[in-house]
Amino acid sequence: MKIKGLIFDLDGIITDTAQLHFLAWKQSLLAENIDFSETENAQLKGLSRKETLRAILELKNLTWDEQKIDTVCFKKNEIYLKLLENLNKDHLLPGILDLLTSAKSKKLKIALASSSLNAPLILEKLGIIAFFDYIADPKKIKKPKPAPDIFLLASEGLSLNPENCIGFEDSLSGFLSIKSAKMRSVVVSLDQFSEFNQADFWFSSTDQLKIDHILTVLNS
């Protein structure tokens, strides 16, 4: 099947705000007398805000009601938005601007499939929102990654069949989401999950992403 669309995760593929997320979680949890380490944070890659907090509570053997969860999520996001104020085009990961530019020159459609509710703001600050034909709204899906919902929503938003799309991810849950959506897959990660061997491409850095090579292989 000919590739007609590219669907990207955001954090770890287009930019890297993981440290900002960690600092925001650490500060908001500290206010609740909960210590949160970078090691614990690394286990939660690819989860939505609320799913992240639920996972943290599970790690800490804590139970909160929904109102408390919503309150802490809101406070975390306020801190995160403050940290995002200095984000700009210099925070694009290597090779991404060239990749997007080349994809557009080839008339490929481009979408974002991120669990971040702040994705449109981040794309705006990075100066690349005009490249995107569709941004999937995580509030419209029933199940988060590793379920295929958000990638399927993105392909639907592009008016393309999933098999005509390539999904780009850096997390295991994200890759499993692409796989479940029956899309072609590109993983960019230093993690050594055995599942990544099933990806069509597995790179260690975004500067290795060359759309001509990827299309030549997948369209052959």
Automatic annotation (TrEMBL):
On whether Ribonucleoprotein is a keyword of this UniProt record, the answer is: no
Positions contributing to substrate binding = 9-11, 25, 44-49, 76, 114-118, 145
**Single GO MF descriptor:** magnesium ion binding
Family, per the entry? Belongs to the HAD-like hydrolase superfamily. CbbY/CbbZ/Gph/YieH family.
Q: What is this protein called?
A: Beta-phosphoglucomutase
Q: What class of enzyme is it?
A: isomerase
Which UniProt keywords are listed? Answer: Carbohydrate metabolism, Isomerase, Magnesium, Metal-binding, Phosphoprotein
The EC number on file is: 5.4.2.6
**Which SUPFAM superfamilies does the record associate with it?**
HAD-like
